Amino acid sequence: MGNEMRIVTKDSKDKYIFTDVLEIEGQETTILDITCLDAIRKIVADNDVTAIINCAAWTNVDGAEDPEKYALVEKLNATAPENLAIAMKEVNGLLVHISTDYVFGGDPYNTPCKEDQKGTPTGVYGLTKLHGEQNIQKTGVDYLIFRTAWLYSEFGKNFVKTMMNLTANKPQLKVVFDQVGTPTYAYDLAATIYDIIENRKYTGNTGVYHYSNEGVTSWYDFTKMIAEIAGNKSCDIQPCHSDEFPSPVKRPAYSVLDKTKVKEVFEMAVPYWTDSLKICMNNLMKE
Ligand SMILES: NC(=O)c1ccc[n+]([C@@H]2O[C@H](COP(=O)([O-])OP(=O)(O)OC[C@H]3O[C@@H](n4cnc5c(N)ncnc54)[C@H](OP(=O)(O)O)[C@@H]3O)[C@@H](O)[C@H]2O)c1
User: Fold this and answer.
1) Whole-angstrom Cα distance, residue 192 to residue 262?
2) Is pTM beyond 0.70 here?
3) Which of 282, 174, 162, 271 is CA-nearest to residue 231?
4) Ligand 1 atom, smallest distance to 1 CA
5) Closest residue (by CA) to atom 24 of ligand 1?
6) What is the tens place of the pLDDT at every residue in 145-197?
7) Which residues contact 192 (CB under 8 A, 6 or more apart)?
8) Does the beta carbon of 45 lie inside 6 Å of ligand 1?
9) What are the beta bridge partners of residue 52?
């Protein structure tokens, strides 16, 4: 997500500073550990920062279930966003924060989730991300929280890249069809955030928003589409149930996000998931 923000902001009239907890080879990055409030305050003061877009998080959903990791996951997903919110509140700035569909899932439902639906996370990742949202809201800062889902991009390790590789190299593959949601091309979310910030559309419109691509699919159908676009015809892809892949955390069976609010408030269209998938995969296949 952070890498896509770098791309979409490159021609901005605003000045962006990109931070990470570690040095990234070949990229200009300012080192910042967002679990340290004083370090955030210093960067904000030194650079006159008026808005923060937080793309950092603990994102390993299964790894978050390790009881020994709980304190660290909570620190990164709940305390760090609170730190960023405090730092922005102190300068009357804006915090843009990315959250997740995994704040839902505990209650059974089969219609798309709205922003005001009660959070019912099924695991530590979703729970700590929900705490992060609540901590931001408690500070009284101006905030935009975007709950997104099934993020992929040209960068890092993600489902699209994994399945492009597996469907090219394996004769058979089983993929769960009983978890339904919507993929999100991180570029589309980054471009949305950029448009809102660049054109100051957040004024009077702060709050929680849902953003994924349009449409609904299962991980199985997502994989079939990835194989089709990649031209990987030799892999036999079969649907299976989630219990065939035991996991330490129960994932939401239906995690479709309702995007009516973001579309109406910011008067924008959201790309259909297969259209965006083709764009991302064409970029990957050019590499
Ligand atoms: N991926 C998904 O499917 C998905 C779905 C819904 C919502 N989201 C949310 O979307 C956001 C972006 O996700 P992503 O997939 O782009 O995540 P990602 O690739 O895992 O990136 C997270 C970044 O946070 C950095 N980070 C870790 N600890 C830090 C610290 N103490 N201070 C500063 N930075 C730190 C990581 O650095 P290192 O790599 O050096 O550790 C990494 O660059 C997250 O809020 C996530 O919860 C993701």
Assistant:
1) 10
2) yes
3) 282
4) 16
5) 56
6) 999 999 999 999 999 999 999 999 999 999 999 999 999 999 999 999 999 99
7) 146, 211, 262, 266, 268
8) no
9) 95
